[in-house]
Automatic annotation (TrEMBL):
Pfam families attached to this UniProt entry: TAXi_C, TAXi_N
Range of residues in the leader sequence: 1-23
UniProt keyword annotation of Magnesium present: no
UniProt keyword Hydrolase, yes or no: yes
GO terms under biological process: proteolysis
Name assigned to this protein: Protein ASPARTIC PROTEASE IN GUARD CELL 2
Listed GO MF terms: aspartic-type endopeptidase activity
InterPro entries to which the protein is assigned, alphabetical: Aspartic_peptidase_A1, Aspartic_peptidase_AS, CND41-like, PEPTIDASE_A1, Peptidase_aspartic_dom_sf, TAXi_C, TAXi_N
Family classification: Belongs to the peptidase A1 family.
């Protein structure tokens, strides 16, 4: 080796080590996936869509119900841009109502919360409740909205004083031999109070147990509590308590009502615990025409089609919203980089099928946004819209590489957000595409994991063991 070569060797080695170090650092940021912008195609369906599903089945002791996106039964959508934008605005109303309910419960005394006009369920703008399944009540098939933030299951009933338009005929209690009214002096009527702060509202000339459900956007359902024969696939339940709605108004689409999957004694999960052990799971489908997922009642994981192992975390109690599902968020990683924020693990975060966009504390969102922009750079910016403030103009691209987003929970459980749950398309031509995360207004508000980030995930709720599980799964009901 020449003297000149020996002189250059330290420099070459230094450059090599610098390269390797830089390469390792680059790899750290290279946890990315390809998003084809052609995936988001909002096409009209041919023919009149049906809300009903006939693909439900039983397997290995569990019941599997086909789950569809609510747009599937909304009829022809003329303006998809308007639809996508309206969904964000209503989602904000929903979250504001949820935060308001928590504050009301925290500040109210026992006497105040027992009033009949206190919302029975979650104070929700129901346009944002996106997923439907078909149940059989009193021998009639009815499509209903699925909501983990509600307890009472209800349908519109005939005769109806005031009903919104639905695609299927109204439930007619007079034609069902298994329909039974619930009376005011019954223990079943008392479940309204224990489930939702709302005691049965009984007038002097009303022997039946009346209910009132008011939602945050002005929607409501009012009627009487009743019992009926319920079938979920091939699994049957007698004396199922539900609301027979005689006066209903709101943004419920073409559905027949709502199915409550909350934690109180009045929910479907509690009432069916003898059949399914208090366990249910779902895989939420996309908005593609004909796309479907599944709601599985029961805990046999052999029917799942998960592509990653199930990881579990514990549910945590929340005294203000005891009927909801909370868990501890301990961290978030962007492209493999752990985000540094002060408030991880301090307060529980709500897992909600009724919220669309995930909401984070301002300090957490700020850190997540900064790291995302660091890794997803060089793309033209686009204006913010509604709750979304990190937006891009991707109309000139067929596909983009986007950083992985991973939500980390207590017990080393992870939710790897599907690639379709990272960006929200405000405009269908991709000229306004936004990071599908939003900031809360204040640090002390409740964080929420929305359904947009739950797409193509198997999410398992075990109410007996008080655990929640996550696994990647490409949704499909067949």
């Amino acid at each position: 080796m020449t003297v000149d070569a020996m002189t250059r060797l330290p420099l070459l080695l230094s450059l090599l080590f610098l390269y390797l170090g830089t390469a390792n650092e680059v790899n750290c940021y290279e946890e990315k996936r390809v998003l084809s912008l052609q995936t988001f195609q909002w096409k009209q369906q041919s023919g009149a869509p049906s809300c009903l599903s006939r693909k439900s089945r039983s397997e290995n002791g569990v019941t599997i119900l086909e789950m569809k996106h609510r747009d599937y039964c909304s009829g022809k959508i003329i303006d998809w841009n308007k639809k996508l934008q309206k969904r964000l605005i209503l989602d904000d109303f929903h979250v504001q109502a949820l935060q308001s309910r928590r504050k009301t419960k925290a500040s109210a005394g026992v006497a105040e919360v027992s009033e009949a006009q206190i919302p029975l369920t979650s104070g929700i703008a129901l346009e944002t409740l996106n997923y439907i399944v078909t149940i059989e009540l009193g021998g009639r098939n009815m499509p209903v909205i699925v909501d983990t933030g509600s307890d009472l299951t209800w349908v519109q009933c005939q005769p109806c004083k005031s009903c919104y338009n639905q695609k299927e005929p109204l439930f007619d209690s007079s034609t069902s031999p298994t329909y039974q009214s619930v009376f005011c002096n019954s223990s079943a009527c008392e479940t309204l109070h224990f489930a939702s702060w709302n005691s049965g509202n009984c007038g002097s000339n009303q022997p039946t147990c009346n209910y009132v459900v008011n939602y945050g956007d002005g929607s409501y359902t009012r009627g009487e509590l009743a019992s009926e024969h319920l079938s979920l696939g091939t699994a049957a339940m007698n004396n199922f308590l539900f609301g027979c709605g005689r006066n209903n108004k709101g943004l419920f689409g073409g559905t027949s009502g709502l199915m409550g999957l909350g934690r109180s004694d009045l929910s479907v999960i509690s009432q069916s615990s003898a059949l399914f052990g208090g366990v249910f799971s779902y895989c939420l489908p996309s908005t593609d025409a004909g796309a479907s997922g599944s709601l599985v009642m029961g805990g046999d994981s052999s029917v799942f089609r998960n592509s990653t192992p199930i990881s579990y975390t514990k549910m945590v109690p929340n005294s203000q919203l005891s009927n909801f599902y909370f868990l501890n968020l301990t961290g978030i990683s962007i492209g493999g980089v752990d985000v540094q924020a002060p408030n991880f693990g301090e307060d529980g975060i709500l897992l909600d099928s009724g919220t669309v966009i995930t909401r984070l504390a301002p300090s957490v969102y700020k850190a997540v946004k900064a790291e995302f922009l660091k890794q997803f750079s060089g793309f033209p910016p686009a204006p913010a819209f509604s709750i979304l403030d990190t937006c891009f103009n991707l109309s000139g691209y067929e596909e983009v590489n986007i950083p992985n987003i991973k939500l980390q929970f207590e017990g080393n459980a992870d939710l790897n957000v599907d690639v379709t749950g990272i960006f929200y398309f405000v405009k269908t031509d991709a000229s306004q595409v936004c990071l599908a995360l939003a900031s809360l207004s204040y640090e002390d508000e409740i964080g929420i994991i929305g359904n947009y980030q739950q797409k193509n995930q198997r999410v398992i709720y075990d109410t007996k063991q008080s655990t929640l599980g996550f696994a990647g799964e490409t949704c499909g009901s067949t």
